[in-house]
Task: structure prediction
Amino acid sequence: MNEVLTKLARLFPQRPQTALILGSGLGDFATRLHEASSISTTELEGYPQSTVPGHAGRIVMGRVNRMAVLCFQGRIHLYEGYTPDEVTLPVRIAHGLGCRILMVTNAAGGIDPQLAPGDFMLIEDHINVQFRNPLRHRDLKTEERFIDMSEPYDVELRHLASQAAREQGIPLRAGVLGALLGPSYETPAEVRMMARLGASAACMSTVPEVILARALGLRVLAISCITNRAAGTSPTPLEHAEVQAVAAQVGQQFGTLLTAILVKVSESLAH
Result:
């Protein structure tokens, strides 16, 4: 870990303020960063490599509105066989390089009938049905084990995100994320269960990163791109190609939304 941080600090001499983890098919946002430089994660010893299409495996540093931003272009998932420690390594890197805010994005299946493919959901809470936690069975030295999770997603950041979306004319509905382990999609019965628990959308990521970020004291904002309807509510069988296709179709709008949010965050940090 220390060697990775040293190498990245030499490559990215400016201290980043905000980090983004970009989900399935959403990595193109990193191309919008100004004065960007990047490194393949294959060049970082011990960094777990994504095995999923739509995850480039690059770390990119650039600027948005004079704010230094660190982007993880592609993520690692529990369902790839990685441990919670490995999955959350980007969060530790972001924290180690000085980030104060973590923004997480994902592709998700819509459970709420009002969420259609191509919509964006501002995550206001989550339900962890992955039954994995990055704080479990660790010799914790730098973060608290018994962290409060009554506000995992920062209220002020959510307000800024909603304001940015309104100004851009981009619908952004708030909802609860249900996180399952995967990689198989949910059954219709599981989707009905999640709906009864209060989930608006389902994904196979995000929650481990959010838990560790809160333990490290990072403020968190998270947004889902609804790429499909969940099982039992979709007229067609679910497949990963659909996820990538929908993410590509809304990529420009998603990039516009993220940029507008980052501008708001930059202005907020400057005051």
